[in-house]
Amino acid sequence: MGIGKKSKNIGKIAEGKTKETAGKVVGNESLEGKGRAQRMKGKVKQAVEKGKDTFKH
User: Fold this and answer.
1) Torsion of CA 31, 47, 49, 12, to 10 degrees
2) Residues whose CB is less than 8 angstroms from the CB of residue 11 and which lie 6 or more positions away in sequence, other chains included
3) Quick check: 39 and 13 in contact, CB under 8 A?
4) CA nearest 16: which of 44, 47, 38?
5) What is the reported pLDDT for 5?
6) N or C: which end of the chain has fewer CB within 10 A?
7) Is 55 exposed, middle or buried (0-12, 13-18, 19+ CB in 10 A)?
8) d(CA 38, CA 35)
C-alpha cells in the first residue's frame, strides 16, 4: 500500500471518529452517524489496499 493512500485512509478513520465522538457529546445523532459512516469507509478502503498489496507479492 502506498504511504499516501495509507495516510489518507488513517486520516479518514480519525476524522470519522472525531465526528462520531463530537456527535455523542452534543447529542447530534446526524453528526454521530456521519462520523461512523466516514470511519467505516476509511476502514474498508484500507482493507482493500491491504488486499491489493497481498496479491502484488
Assistant:
1) 20
2) 42
3) yes
4) 38
5) 78
6) C
7) exposed
8) 5
pLDDT at residue 52 in the model: 83
From residue 18, give the alpha-carbon distance in Å to each of 31, 43, 52, 54, 56: 10, 15, 28, 30, 33
Kindly state the DSSP code that residue 53 receives in the 8-state scheme: H
Q: What is the pLDDT along the chain (57 residues), one digit of tens a residue?
A: 567 778 888 999 999 999 999 999 999 999 999 999 999 999 999 999 888 877 776
Q: Where are the beta strands (DSSP E) in 9-52?
A: none
CA distance 25 to 28: 8
